[in-house]
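Possible regression after last week's pipeline update?

I re-ran a chain I had predicted before the update to compare outputs. Posting the input and the new output here so someone can diff against the archived version. Not blocking, just want to make sure nothing changed silently.
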Amino acid sequence: MSSSDVTTDTTTVPLGDIEPARSRHAGRRSAVALTEDLLVAGTAVGDVRAYDRTTLDERWFAEGTNDETSVVAAVGFAGGVAVGERGPDGGVRLYDVATGSVRWRYDTADDVGAPQKRSRFFLPFVADLAVCGERLYVAARRYERDGDDRSFRSVVYAFEETGDIAWTYETDASPISLDADDGADRRDGRVAVAYNRCPGDHQHGVVVLDAETGAVQWQWDPGTAGQRRVGDVSLLETGVAVASHGDYRGYRLGAGGAERWSVDLATLTKIDDETLYAYPNHVHATPEGCVFVTGNTYPEEGRETASLHPDEHTAFGYSPEGERVWSASVGGFAGEIAASGDLIAVPCAQQFRTRDPATHALRVFDVRKGRCAERDAEGIVTAAAVDERAFVAVEEPVVYHDEGQRRGAYRLHAGGP
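New output (post-update):
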């Protein structure tokens, strides 16, 4: 997809019927991926559906294993499609791209443990998938709570194409995202892991691992008080870009984690009698620059606020040297982003404080130029994938708590230049 196109010509495909989302963001429950020939959707009921990229005819359908499981991550891998679940088993599955048959499956609950409760946020969760060469990298976690005390068990896996595990990296922190690359040659490959909460012994928001062996190359932390650390990490040829939850800033780090620059994103700001902030939740970096995306407003004290941070729900584009080049609203909360080269697709869900359905959309940005495409939706947009040929997004129905009106439907939006 050309980064200069404004794309409005799309086709939709129904994904069935699910319970609508409510005003507040309730976590990921859908996923989508692009392969050479397919659009593949993982659904809130655990099904996986594959469609022809050209005709949108259904190629195959794989039924979910139980009604507690949703598919929350998907990526093309080894001539197939790998998916990750939120569910009692925290499963990772690799589907054959031609037939939809399962080549292999691994249950991360065998390592992170069974759920403390059979409710959504306590279920084992595959937080992210990344592919580097002939390996699939997976971050999985499980959450527990005892009164006010939170704890996590998590594992990062390196899977071979056969489903064999090459190595694992375990901590008592909460991984939120992965990035992987081959480096200058295969021996220089890296896997970067972002940890958004560190309540235990592990106290590093970013860990960079050797992709071949799993050995720790270096670690970094914003050095702030509390459990909140990092929302996302993106590898560069040298170093990484980081969205920091600890101090609401964006960082570019060089080799070994040395700080090259940092920028204010949605830092503490006083409005009337409140001090507000918003978490930088996402980052994508290329040789052309870095894009950071911020999330919901929160007050420094308590959870409710009468005001909005001026930099919430915003995409910020920075040059490689750390100069702000552009900024643009993303409309509402983005639970994830998708990226391909210099393109970033941002699925926009509800702005739960203002509840404006006009914000529901997929918005596509260019690292250098800012917004370049947009697709409106009646419901909230919760998952996306993009490549040089097309974008695809998942829309979910929503009912705002103070209206009672159902907006939108569970469906795929597919578009291109």
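Follow-up from reviewer: compared with the archived run. The chain is about 0% helix and 55% strand. Marking as no regression found.
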